[in-house]
Amino acid sequence: MQNNVGLLLTKRAHLNPSLDAIVDVDKQQTFSFGALNARSCRTANALSGLGIRKGDRVALLMMNGVEFIESFFALAKIGAVVVPLNWRLVPDELGFILKDSGARALIYGAEFGGAVAELQARGPEGSAVEHWIQTGGEIPDFARDYDALQSGASESEPETGASDDDLLYIMYTSGTTGLPKGAVHTHNSAIWALVTIAATADLRFKDRYLLALPLFHVGALTPLTGSVYRGVTSIVMRSFDPVAAWELIREHEITTGLAVPAMLNFMLQVHRTGAGGEIPDRLRWIMSGAAPVPVTLIEAFAELGVEIHQVYGLTETCGPACLISPDEALTKVGSTGKAFFHTDVRVVNEAGEDVAPGEPGEVLIRGAHIMKEYWNRPDATAETLKDGWLWSGDVAIMDEDGFITIQDRTKDMIISGGENVYPAEIENVLLAHPGVAEVAVIGQPSEKWGESPLAVVVKADPGLDAGAVLDHCRGKLARFNPTGKVLKRVLRERFPGPAPD
Fold this sequence. Notes:
single chain, alpha/beta, Rossmann fold, GMP Synthetase, Chain A, domain 3, 3 domains, 5-stranded parallel beta sheet, globular
C-alpha cells in the first residue's frame, strides 16, 4: 500500500465497509466507511474530470460535514493539494490565502456564497481560481453544482496521484502574532502523525470520537484522519455548541474527543447550570490543547469523573508534540506530559543549549511528522526549521522526569523590571476566581517597568470588580512575577497602553 492519505479510507472501507465512519450531526445521517469511500471516489473522479491534477491546489471553504471530509480524501487520492480555509476570515483574508496558495479551485458551502461572489468578482487579479464549486443552495452562474458533479461520476477508485513526500495540504496558521503562514504537510508527515498518535494516545478500534473543532484546524483534521486509520467513528458537529456537545456525548455513546480549553470551560458552565445532564461512564477522556489548560479546569472535570489529557502540538507538527498519559493525568496535573512515541522534544535557551530542569526555555520538536516548509516563505522556514528541529516559539519548563509544562509563547512573554513574566501563569490564577469566565493577559508599555501586564477579563459574575480580582491575586503571585486560541496581537491593538503603574 502506498503512503497516500486518501488510501487510508480505501483500506478501511475494504476492511470494515459496514462500520460507521462518520455521523454528520447537521444532516442527521450516518455514513459507513464503505459509503464514505464511494462518495469520496466519485468526488475524486469528478474533480479529475475538471482537469485537477497532482500538485494543483484546491481550497475548501466549508463547515464541518460529509462534503468537507469526502473532498479532503478525494483530493488526497488524486494527488491534489488541499488548502483548508478558516471560514471566520473576511473576504480580504480569504483572498490573500487563495492568491498566496495559487488555488485552482474552490469548493465552498452555500452559506459563504456572498463572500465567494465578492472574491470571484475580483477576477484573475484576485486569485488563480478557475473552478468555483458550491455545495447546497441556489447555484450562481459562475459556479458549478457540487452535488451534480459528484452524482454523475464513477465510484471506481481513481488512479493514485501522489505518495510519500508529495504535498498533501497547506494549512495557514492563525497564529497569535503576524500574518498567516502556510504550513506544508506531505502524505508522509501526515501518516507519521497518525502513527505516533496511535502509539501514544488511548484510542481504540470502534471508539466514538466527538469531532467539534472546525476541520480547517489541525486539531480536527488530524484526529479525523486518525479515526479512519484506527477504525473509529467520528461524531461530527457542524460547529461547537456546549449544550449539544453533552447531548451528543450521551446520545451517541461517545468515548473520547478533543476540545480546546475555552470549549471545556463552556461545557463546564453548562453542566453547572444542570443543562449538561448525567455524564455517561463510557466517556473515558477528553484531550485538550491549543493553549495551556488551566489546572482549575482539569480539576473541575476530574470531579465530574472525566480525565482531561493535556496535549501540546502545533499546525507545523501536524498535531503531535507532547501528551500526558492516562496514568499521569492527575498526578502531574497541569503538565502536557512527555513527547509522543515517535517524537523528540527539548527545552533550550536562545543559543540552542538544553536548559536545566525547571528552567524556562523554548520548546524544540523533532519527528517525521514535522512540516516540510512554509509555503513560499523560505526566510520563515529557515527561522523555524534548524538542523532537523522545529523551533516552536513556545516557552516551557521540563522537570527532572521529562514532563513538559507549557508556560507561554515567547512573543507573549512580558519583560517587566527585568523579570520574565509569563501571562499564562497569571491567567491560571485569575481563572481560579469563580467570578472570572475568561481572561487574557497582555503586556503594555510602562515608563516605570518597561512593560506591565494587563488582564482583560470576561466576568461570570456581573458584580465582580477590579478590587476583588486584585485581592484574589495577593499571596498567589509574586509581585515581580506574573481559547480557542486568544489572539493577543488583536488585544494589544485594542489596548495600546500605556499601562498604569
